[in-house]
Amino acid sequence: MPDGEFTQQERARVILEALAETSQATTTELATALEAHPITVERHCRALQRAGHVRRCPGGAYALVETDLGSSAPTPDDAAVGQQRSTNPAD
């Protein structure tokens, strides 16, 4: 799906799903999966990192944060991921 067809919540969900399948991925790999610009994906990954859903690995890849419950695929919520509203029309 091209950039404009995803909402903030959907992008976060797709990123988390991709990381659940691959264990870790670079911004470029995630951008290819989302058909989005790497900078857009990087911004979403940083928001997910601040929310505690993903972590940055050596070499610049992102991976899911493991939880105590054994689930490694947290669900993003509007409060954590959707707070930042971009004024960039490309987002």
From TrEMBL:
Record has Transcription regulation as a keyword: yes
MF terms in GO: DNA binding; DNA-binding transcription factor activity
Domain of life of the source: Archaea
Keyword Transcription attributed: yes
Entry-linked Gene3D superfamilies: Winged helix-like DNA-binding domain superfamily/Winged helix DNA-binding domain (1.10.10.10)
This protein's UniProt keywords: Transcription, Transcription regulation
Region ranges (Disordered): 68-91
Database matches in InterPro entries: DeoR_HTH, Tscrpt_reg_IclR_N, WH-like_DNA-bd_sf, WH_DNA-bd_sf
UniProt domain HTH deoR-type: residue ranges: 8-63
Protein name per UniProt: Transcriptional regulator, DeoR family
Organism from which the protein derives: Haloterrigena turkmenica (strain ATCC 51198 / DSM 5511 / JCM 9101 / NCIMB 13204 / VKM B-1734 / 4k)
